[in-house]
Amino acid sequence: MALRIEQLVLLPTLGLNAATVALVGRNLGAGKPDRVVESVRVALAIGVGLMSAGALLVYLARSPLLAVFTDDPAVRELGALYLGIVVLAFPAYAVVILGAGVLQGLRRPLPALLVGIGRHIVVPPLVFWSLDVALGLGFSGVALAVPLISWAGALATGGLIRRYLPRPEASPGVRS
């Protein structure tokens, strides 16, 4: 149930991502690095702003939102606990999703793919086990793992953007 709510909040960011890929790619191809940088800045500001607002709304309305999907009080209680923690990841989702689009527009999809593999395959078992089993946090630890992994991915993505984003004063194209 909670994942459905997360996915609904993500929809505007996914649409913004499609626009970001197109704007970055078009401006890069046109040799306008200043417009590439501006497109990235605006997209990230809007995306992080939207996801932060979504996080606040979901946090405040998590119980009524969950009631739409289930009448089971135990499921609603766990869902509310999960959403109350995982909303901390919402702005990071924007950075990762939009950052992947930026890297695609810069003709650098492989680094974004590697961040995705790390976020979805390599890192989660280690973090879930550490928080759930090693530290004994149980379900709260599993929920806490989501923002930790997401922010790690956002930091990695941000570093990649900084590395590959053209400098406005540079010649057209992507820095190596």
What is the alpha-carbon Rg in Å? 18 Å
Main sheet overview: none
Range of strand content: under 5%
The CA-CA distance between the termini, in Å, is 43 Å
- What is the number of beta strands? 0
User: What count of structural domains?
Assistant: 1
SSE topology:
Elements: H1 2-29, H2 33-69, H3 73-86, H4 90-105, H5 109-134, H6 138-164
Helix pairs in contact: 1-2, 1-4, 2-3, 2-4, 3-6, 4-5, 4-6, 5-6
Structure description:
The protein has 176 residues and is mostly helical. The chain is built from six helices and no strands. The protein has one domain (2-164). The protein has helices at 2-29, 33-69, 73-86, 90-105, 109-134, 138-164.
In short:
By secondary structure, the protein is an all-alpha fold. It contains six helices and no strands.
Descriptive terms for the model:
single chain; 176 residues; 6 helices; globular
